[in-house]
DNA sequence: GCGACAG
DNA sequence: ATCTTGTCGC
């Protein structure tokens, strides 16, 4: 962890220390066994009213990009949103959703950072370690890392390395011409170039990879269903008079 | 010159 | 993340 990111007396210190321990186990070289046939997207949605969250994993065929299987898991929100400790909030429901999958993915693309994180332990990395599955961090917005915005080309495929703590921790990647870049980094058991290649391959027509889009749609629809059910439940008890 | 804080 | 209308472009 680069100094100056969190208070030494933070209540969350135990979690930062746990990240430092976990970081020792991260594999940042290509450790994908065999051919990548299935790639999953992961996402989580929240409901402030009920304090519930829904995590989803959607498995796509790596070549056709068609959905092969999808699983969700709903549970109570157990950890607050703290930049840098995001994984402690979202990994639990994703691990549960993963357990339900019949088709285990060869790779998971997360809607969050991997090593491009103050402690080198973003959600993608944490999830990868937890599941022992190769993961890629693919976030929509910047968290850490210095890069030269003026050197980032406007065309799809353009990249600029992001430096943090004197190391390249990821890249700003343009997945479509003239769109805001995505921030790609190693999660676990993949190298940066492999991560970039897969994100591009999974993003043929939109800014976000198809994996993330599918997972996003799923959690939103499930969340909407849940809210309607809750609403009907309230009506049912109010109505009889 | 300063600063950027995932979802 | 989530809350939300109109609006720009293919």
TrEMBL record:
GO molecular function, one term: RNA endonuclease activity producing 5'-phosphomonoesters, hydrolytic mechanism
Keywords for the protein's UniProt record, in alphabetical order: Cytoplasm, Endonuclease, Hydrolase, Nuclease
Family matches, as HAMAP family: Endonuclease_5
UniProt organism field: Darwinula stevensoni
GO biological process, one term: DNA repair
CC annotations in GO: cytoplasm
Compartments where found: Cytoplasm
Name the record gives this protein: Uncharacterized protein
Principal place of residence: cytoplasm
